[in-house]
Hints:
Elements lengths: L3 H7 L2 H12 L1 H7 L1 H26 L5 H4 L3 H12 L3 H4 L3 H12 L12 H7 L7 H24 L4 H17 L3 H14 L4 H10 L4 H4 L4 H6 L2 H22 L1 H21 L3 H4 L4 H7 L4 H25 L4 H12 L9 H16 L6 H21 L6 H13 L5
Helix pairs in contact: 2-4, 2-11, 3-4, 4-11, 4-23, 9-16, 10-12, 11-22, 11-23, 12-13, 13-16, 16-17, 19-20, 20-21, 21-22, 21-24, 22-23, 23-24
Amino acid sequence: MLSRHRYLQMMPPPLMLALAAASQAKTEIRRDGLPYRIVGLIALFLGVMVAIVFLRGAMSAGISPTLADKDFANYWVAAHLAADGKVAVIFGPHPRYFAHMVAAMGPGFPWHNWSYPPHYLLMIMPLALVGYKTGMVLFLAATGALFFTGLNAFMGRRDNLALLAVAPLVVVNLWSVQNGFLTSGLILWVLALRDKRPVLAGICLGAMTIKPQLGVLLLLLPIIERRWLVLLTAALTTVALVLASAWAFGTGAWVGFVRDILPDQADVMANYVGAWLTMAPSTFAGARLMGLTSSTALLVHLVVALPTLILTVFCIAQRPGQRNIILPVAIFLIVPYTMNYDLGIVGAAIALFIRQQENAGRQIPHLQQAILALGMLSPILTMVVGLSGFSIAPVILLLVLAVFLNPAAR
């Protein structure tokens, strides 16, 4: 029997920080309004529920179904396959790879697929050295540290309101055990460092090629701002990662990625239904969730994405002080394949917007506060509302962007 002290030791550090943020930021949420207080209460309640489920799974013998059915299973199994010299299984036909996942996770393991480029393996190879549960805690702790330090750098200081704004994202990411901390953290570091530390910003931007759909729009900032060192460093980092992965795993890994993984991922987007559609905040996924074909859904998505792209380019060119606020939200309205566990940058952008308004002595109207609170909750609402067959995330994100672009908020 594990002691209560042992329970706390087994809880992922990001979850403890999220619970602390939701419960300790009382001064902030009193000052900032009722909608933010509600966000904190919801995050606190769901965070406790996630903690209970996590601890029960950690206490059980073997790998319980509640811990096995996470995308982390992909990372852990892939790391062990790579360590055993079976990289071709990872970057080969899906049935062969999935058979190894079932063998590792147990009969009845639900459908999962591998969707990452070979250089992502370089980042997760240490997982081959540890067991599943230990690896899960270490993965969450390491990527959570990257995210929260990036959040502090993005805000310019440790900010309780920012912790509150991302608390729903933290709960979702810990429930899914995905790499949202990693990708959101890298983006926050790019946004925070591109001025004073362009080389480090470029390295983080190059590392975002593990999820290029999220990082490609970040190129707009160094191009508009003429930060050529950021772009050069990002390009060199990308080349270095590709070469390093080819050296470590063989060129066959990249051949398999192009031949098998990319077509399989395109098939998932076009034809697969199920839980992933309820977790995707894009207009494309929302249209597919409501029964439209992939081609029609893409047209609907473009109706939203193209005007948003044009507006985003214009606004970040004309509003230097709002670039770090506008772009994080625009990414999820423009890119067709995104997930709710990547929405941490939206919560951070909302917190930064609120602080900017405070520093300018402007009071945010109650209706706009409610919209911003919905934006903070979007990682949770995307999934909860999505279970009903309706997508609310694009509507929330459009409203949040409208609040940001309100002339009175400049």
